[in-house]
Design goal:
Keywords: ATP-binding, Membrane, Nucleotide-binding, Translocase, Transmembrane, Transmembrane helix. This is Ca2+-transporting ATPase. One of its GO terms (biological process) is proton transmembrane transport. The protein is α+β, with helices and mostly antiparallel strands and 915 residues long. Helices cover 49% and strands 16% of the residues. The strands form four sheets. Strands 10, 11, 12, 15, 16, 17, 18, 19, 20 and 21 form a ten-stranded mixed beta sheet that branches. Helix 10 packs parallel to helix 27 and helix 27 runs antiparallel to helix 30. The longest helix is centred in the C-terminal third of the chain and has 41 residues.
């Protein structure tokens, strides 16, 4: 699917339910508003449309994962070597290689299965229930049994079980952030919308997996299962195929190149031997030795093990990867597209500022914690219990001491504000019960309650009003001054404060009151709505979903690391822009409507200057991710809502929150169990560390392979031991047993310093590039030359059929060079001799001991074809090995000096001219 097609949307609904009147909905759905469906009809429809559940692709079986490991090119080459070894009678070699193949396959399979099981553990869902009217009787059934035409009852706290058209409602509000990204509850009602109403503005509809935060409703189910809005988003995931990670692609290419090099070397050496007149058995023996030398037998094991180590570290840091290769992809991330609600923010509505008596106050504290104060310009806490009562009494939410909320999130924020003013809302509502009330309604946008409360030491009958500032201000004639006197309302000051709050992305609410005589109680109770006039303005509060405490610092780290961070949200662009400015994301905020007006070419051109996207749809998110990828970015997309799922799957590294929807977690490659954006940035750092260790290993491994290929080619060209520079068992012993400890040392090396102070690696510059190739060839040539010396000028004549001191010395030099390479090449261009070095040195003692044992222990001598060496021969081997140290450290010193000179030159060029 093209990027252009991704954002060209059209409604696939057969019926635009939101645009129909309730009676027309009943007719279209072929049901009855009062009695619902008959049980038999419901069963029939269930058989036709299927269960009300979202479908997901089954995970691959263990055998399928294992087969994919077997079909890796490296594994297939090793299997070929095993078969040839058996054919020529090299049983020991065949057994060792076969064990290596089995080890590679088992290790890779276990790690993949382990990663997948970690994700499966997150998917423990309970089947939601639904109260449905069947044949006039209210029943509670599993939501999976709902069908189009069912009549369902909803109340505060319910999870909406299917897409439904509201037939009637009372003060209904739903939280739709999981679908649209809108962080605030949406007022709903039965009044029809126009046909072209956007999804986020369809107030006559409720949608599956959103929650009811206030009121009650009766709905007609119109869509179930994969036909719901949630299901449609889930179906987008099938349009997005799985992609290989950058490292997978690079290693696949490297494996092919190595295969060509290995088998070309085998062909050349066999042709030389054939021209020399060697027998078929000798040629096959020689070919086996060369193939073993040229195939990086440890590559799959090391990469899998290091990725598994990274996955394990990520899990400890509360980040779970679905596939091991995703660990490395994290390190290549160059762009992060983050959802706002619950990802960068706490998803806990909080009062940030308040305007009382003409003065602006700052509110401290985070989320639903009661800790915090209301502070004036001199940081003196506001002592205003009457204000606390006015805020807490027209309110139906409750907040427990541990932050658990029941009711509307905005009202919960007001409960917390009252606590910071010294008022316990629950106790206040018990002490001052409502004598009358006007419930909130989206038509008139306010709520009013009548109570008898203490005002300046005496009980007064007070009608307290809370609502939209424009509505409340329009009903106010006076206001409370700083000294709590009633004065004419300062409309200009109030309006200016509203504009200031709105400009910073705050949602505003106004409070007012009407002080009444006791004699008015009966009349007010009979018709409270008519008394909501001639009000005294108490104040205005500004509410926001605050940033996570770690989010701003995490964005700073990402920027320092050269990672572009964008916020993509369902909130309005003004609100999103204010949050983006607080985060320090950068300039440029745009709405989803503006996005739709832009062509792909225009949007792609403007992307560097756009960092905040508000009121966007799932298709917009998918389009943005695709355009960034088209520009060469490695994109991480974060989110916790179903509306993020398609973009999360499209991204190179999709990131879901542990508390998010199941569809999103199934689409993601990384799940943050703590819902913390900062954890993602730390995961990127860990991905970079893993990649640096992989490149260090490849530097080590390729140097070894190239030196062996050169050695066998030289042996064939100069007729040294009929081309058999080393026995196959000797090569295997070095490549597997000795190199194993070398690899462990590389993996255990301390993390590179300042790894997040550098820009992301360019994915176009892979692990195989001109610089790395020259490095591999030079280092490999040095090892080849120092190993060739004993074969040319050793104490005896090398032989392909019996052990000799010369061949043993070449084997020892290669073994010691392997150990030294691990020490020197574990980092670049930094010296490999600088601390911390103790931990690595302790590991590398073991392979040195193995090399000594393999030349002195009888059983190992017979297995490997070695002989004991004299003291002088050992000194000669050590001296030759030290040549490698001089060349490698000298090369790195030269490169460090060159970089320092360039940096010094740039500083001089930009220094100010002084006289």
């Amino acid at each position: 699917m093209t990027i252009e097609a991704q954002h060209t949307t059209s409604e696939e609904h057969g019926v635009e339910w939101w645009a129909l009147a309730p009676d027309d909905v009943i007719a279209q759905a072929k049901t009855e508003g009062s009695r619902g469906l008959a049980p038999a009809e419901a069963e029939k429809r269930l058989a036709e449309v299927g269960p009300n559940a979202l479908q997901s692709a089954p995970p691959p079986s263990v055998w399928r994962i294992a087969l994919s490991q077997v079909l890796e090119l490296m594994t297939l080459m090793l299997i070929a070597v095993t078969i040839v070894s058996l054919l020529i009678g090299q049983v020991t070699t065949a057994i060792i290689v076969a064990i290596l193949v089995l080890f590679n396959v088992i290790t890779g399979t276990q790690q993949e299965v382990k990663a997948r099981r970690s994700v499966d553990a997150l998917a423990k869902l309970q089947t939601p229930k639904a109260r449905v009217v069947r044949d006039g009787t209210l029943l509670q059934i599993d939501a999976t049994g709902l069908v189009p035409g069912d009549i369902v009852e909803l109340e505060s706290g319910d999870l909406v079980p299917a897409d439904g058209r509201i037939l009637r409602s009372s003060n209904l509000e739903t939280q739709e952030s999981s679908l649209t990204g809108e962080s605030l509850p949406i007022p709903k009602g039965p009044a029809e919308n126009t046909a072209d109403t956007a999804l986020a503005d369809r107030t006559s509809m409720v949608f599956q997996n959103t929650s009811v935060t206030r009121g009650t409703a009766r709905i007609a189910v119109v869509e179930t299962g994969m036909r719901t809005q949630m299901g449609r988003i889930a179906s987008l995931l099938t349009q997005v195929g799985d992609k290989k990670s950058p490292l997978q692609l690079e290693l696949d290419g490297l494996t092919k190149v190595l295969g060509i090099i290995a088998w070309s070397a085998v062909l050349v050496i066999v042709l030389i031997g054939f021209a020399r007149g060697q027998s078929l058995d000798e040629l096959l023996f020689l070919a086996t030795a060369v193939a073993i030398s040229a195939i990086p037998t440890g590559l799959p094991v090391f990469v899998q093990s290091l990725l598994a180590w990274g996955a394990s570290r990520l899990a400890k840091e509360r980040a779970i990867v679905t596939s091991l290769n995703d660990v490395e992809t994290l390190g290549a991330t160059s762009a992060i597209c983050s959802d706002k609600t619950g990802t960068l923010t706490l998803n806990k509505m909080t009062v940030r500022t308040a305007w009382f008596g003409g003065n602006t106050y700052r509110v401290t504290g985070e989320g639903y914690s009661f800790e915090g104060q209301v502070l004036g310009t001199t940081d003196e806490p506001l002592d205003a219990p009457t204000l606390g009562l006015a805020i807490s009494l027209p309110n139906d939410a409750t907040v427990s001491a541990d932050g658990e909320v029941v009711g509307d999130p905005t009202e919960a924020a007001l409960v917390v504000l009252a606590a910071r003013l010294g008022i316990d809302a629950d106790e206040a509502r018990k002490d001052y019960p409502r004598l009358a009330e006007v419930p909130f309604d989206s038509d008139y946008k306010f709520m009013a309650t009548l109570q008898r409360i203490p005002v300046r030491g005496e009980q007064r009958l007070v009608l307290i009003v809370k609502g939209a500032p424009d509505v409340v201000l329009g009903r106010c004639t006076t206001m409370l001054s700083e000294t709590r006197e009633i004065v004419p309302v300062a409309s200009d000051s109030a309006t200016a404060e509203l504009e200031r709050m709105s400009a910073t992305g705050l949602r505003t609410l106004a409070f007012a009151a009407r002080f009444l005589d006791d004699a008015d109680e009966g009349r007010v109770a009979a018709d409270p709505m008519s008394w909501v006039a001639d009000l005294v303005l108490i104040g205005i509060v500004g509410i926001v979903d605050p940033l996570r405490p770690e989010a701003k610092a995490a964005v700073e780290v990402a920027h320092r690391a050269g990672i572009d961070v964008r916020m993509i949200t369902g909130d309005h662009a003004v609100t999103a822009g204010a949050i983006g400015a607080e985060l320090g994301l950068g300039t440029g905020a745009v709405s989803g409507a503006d996005l739709k007006e832009m062509s792909d070419e225009e949007l792609s051109r403007r992307l560097p200057d756009l960092h905040v996207f508000g009121r966007v749809t799932p298709d917009d998110k998918l389009r943005l991710v695709g355009l960034l990828q088209a520009k060469g970015a490695i994109v991480a997309m974060t989110g916790d809502a179903v509306n993020d799922a398609a973009a999360i799957k499209q991204a190179n590294i999709g990131v879901a929150m542990g508390s998010g929807s199941e569809v999103t977690k199934q689409a993601a490659k990384l799940v943050l169990t703590d819902d913390n954006f900062a954890t993602l940035v730390h995961a990127v750092e860990l991905g970079r560390i893993v990649y640096s260790k992989i490149t260090a290993y490849l530097r080590f491994q390729m140097t070894q392979l190239l030196s062996l290929i050169m050695l066998f080619l030289a042996a064939s060209a100069f007729s040294i031991a009929e081309g058999v520079a080393l026995f196959p068992a000797q090569v295997l012993f070095i490549n597997f047993f000795v190199a194993l400890f070398a690899v462990i040392a590389i993996a255990a090396d301390a993390n590179p310093p300042g790894i997040m102070n550098h820009p992301p690696r360019d994915p176009k510059i892979g692990v195989v590039n001109p610089v790395s190739l020259v490095e591999w060839l030079v280092y490999g040539a040095v090892i080849f030359l120092i190993a060739l010396v004993p074969l040319l000028w050793g104490p005896d004549e090398p032989s392909p059929s019996e052990p000799t001191a010369s061949m043993t010395m070449a084997y020892v030099v290669l073994g010691l060079a392997t150990v030294l390479s691990a020490l020197l090449m574990r980092r670049t261009p930094e010296s490999g001799l600088l601390p911390p070095i103790a931990a690595v040195a302790k590991i590398l003692v073991w392979p040195v001991a193995l090399i000594v044992a393999s030349t002195e222990v009888g059983i190992l001598q017979r297995m490997l074809g070695t002989v004991s060496l004299t003291g002088w021969q050992w000194l000669a081997c050590i001296g030759l090995t030290l040549v490698l140290l001089v060349v490698v450290e000298g090369d790195k010193w030269f490169r460090r000096r060159r970089v320092a000179n360039r940096t010094r030159g740039r500083r001089v060029a930009t220094a100010p001219v002084t006289r």
